[in-house]
Amino acid sequence: MSSIAVIGLSGQLGQPVLAALESSAFADRIAYPIKALTRKDDKVSTDKVQYIQADLADTAAVAQALKGTDVIVELTTANPVLFGHVEKIVAAVKPKLVIPSQFGIHVGAAQELAPGFLGIKIDHSTNLRKLGVKVVDIATGFFAEKSSFSYELVQHYGVDTATNTINQLGPDDAKASISTVADIGYVIASVASDPNPSRFPDSLKVYSENVPVKKVWETYEKNHNVKLELKSKKSAAEARAELKQIWDTEGFVPAKFLLYLNYILAQGEGYGVLFGENERELVNPGEKYWKWSQY
Ligand SMILES: NC(=O)c1ccc[n+]([C@@H]2O[C@H](COP(=O)([O-])OP(=O)(O)OC[C@H]3O[C@@H](n4cnc5c(N)ncnc54)[C@H](OP(=O)(O)O)[C@@H]3O)[C@@H](O)[C@H]2O)c1
């Protein structure tokens, strides 16, 4: 039975991860309570979840609170300062397994197009591995959540929601690997509670499905009762050249984050957004633990 700590609860994944860890799916593999670390002071602990109010900057206090924990799941903002705090905490706690805050595109694969893009995630996992712990990076593709990514936030699919227009990058049949946040919660819970985490590859690619970009446009149109107008269209090669030009001249501009993702999506399989391989059987063989959801 694994004792598990979760860090960073109030973002996209906190609720789905806790829901999966508390569900019956993995209950016989988990030593409850889960230690759930948050800066918030309004949480009420239960027999399954023990909330710990702390700031990650207080690394010694957090390490003390997590002493003896087998698995640390990090769901924080991808931020080098926070990552530095977590590395100190991991060095002191020495868990058996760390699942770092990767979740999203396969960052390593995107390096060919935009060298250094999200490199802080790669550096973080490298630093954690140097501490001698097993680290499983989980790439999930784009998040899908009805009130948020891939439904309301659709700029990475080329949609300008301010003008209801589309700047299409890539072919008409472009697709993206996406995961619902519910599935991501289960994937994380499955890896975190696995009795033998050394069986997982260092980098795991798991997703709910590959969704046509056109389906995301149509879903947005339906949900908002609007017609999106095609404003411009560029081939994958044109998109690649344009990304290279802006990346080489400007470097990383935070406001263009979703645009970079769109350029990467346009390149198709193997560049970080559309995965060739789905390693879902490693975490949920034959849907033994849960039923995969769909976009
Ligand atoms: N592929 C996609 O579509 C996609 C979309 C979104 C995110 N992601 C990835 O998913 C991961 C989580 O992202 P997110 O957007 O959910 O994160 P987020 O909302 O920015 O932050 C998650 C949590 O991190 C903790 N945190 C933030 N700043 C902190 C600080 N200064 N000190 C201590 N804790 C702090 C907070 O937890 P508390 O408030 O509970 O303390 C916060 O709720 C990231 O790796 C991100 O890149 C991918």
From TrEMBL:
List the Pfam families hit by this protein, alphabetically.
NmrA
Q: Which GO terms describe its molecular function?
A: oxidoreductase activity
Keywords recorded for this protein, A-Z = NADP, Oxidoreductase
**The NmrA-like domain covers which part of the protein?**
2-229
Q: What SUPFAM superfamilies does this protein map onto?
A: NAD(P)-binding Rossmann-fold domains
Q: Which InterPro entries match?
A: NAD(P)-bd_dom_sf (IPR036291), NmrA-like (IPR008030), NmrA/Isoflavone_reductase-like (IPR051609)
Tell me the PANTHER family matching this sequence. NMRA-LIKE DOMAIN-CONTAINING PROTEIN-RELATED, NMRA-LIKE FAMILY PROTEIN
By what name is this protein known?
CIP1 protein
* Organism listed in the record: Suhomyces tanzawaensis NRRL Y-17324
Lineage of the organism: Eukaryota, Fungi, Dikarya, Ascomycota, Saccharomycotina
